[in-house]
Amino acid sequence: MGVKGAVVLVAAAVLVGGCSSTVEGRAVVADEAVGLFDPCNGISDSALRYVGVNPATEERGILGVQIPRFEICSWNGTGISLSVWSTDYSLDEVEANTNNADVRTASVHGGPAIKFGQRDDATGQICSVAWAASQGALIVRIVPDFGEAPIDPCGLASMITDKLFQELPR
Q1: The domain containing residue 102 runs over which residues?
Q2: Number of domains making up the chain
């Protein structure tokens, strides 16, 4: 596993660990997440190519591991990894996750959203955009390939979110 894979694994552990340990609410059996939007099946190959990732690099879950209450799909492109996370956690619950860093308000197609980094990301280059959907929340996460030319990961996450918006549930 490369550096990027290790970072993605840590990112998943932090996001999921933070949600499961800090969020109050009703207990959910893993089977309840079955109705979530599945980004692997719900986003077309043409849309993925349009945003600069290769559909053939698709990976479900985090390093192939399914996470309860999430449907996660990732793809690689030149210089980045793109992940789309679908969850039944609300946008407020995502925002309250103490493992998120530099949480700030944003907008996705005129609706409320947040952008955030990751508390354990020493590079400051991982960025996510999250917004409310009928099922809970959707999250677009960008992880730059370390060593590549610097990019604005939050700007890129916002741009990709806008480009994929028509393929995502409301």
Answers
A1: 3-167
A2: 1
> Which tens digit of pLDDT belongs to each residue from 73-121?
999 998 899 999 999 999 999 999 999 999 999 999 889 999 999 999 9
Residue type, 152: D
Q: Is the Cβ–Cβ distance between 109 and 162 less than 8 Å?
A: yes
Q: Report the candidate in 92, 93, 75 with the shortest Cα–Cα distance to residue 84.
A: 75
Non-local (6+) Cβ contacts of 159 within 8 A are none
Q: Is 157 exposed, middle or buried (0-12, 13-18, 19+ CB in 10 A)?
A: buried
Task: Work out the mean pLDDT of the chain and round it to a whole number.
Answer: 84
State the Cα–Cα distance between residues 150 and 140, nearest whole angstrom.
Answer: 19
Calculate the CA dihedral of residues 35, 74, 121, 5 and round it to 10 degrees: 120
The type of residue at 11 is: A
For the chain, counts of helices (H) and of strands (E): 5, 7
Whether 47 contacts 164, CB under 8 Å? yes
What is the distance between the alpha carbons of residues 22 and 13, in angstroms, rounded to a whole number? 13
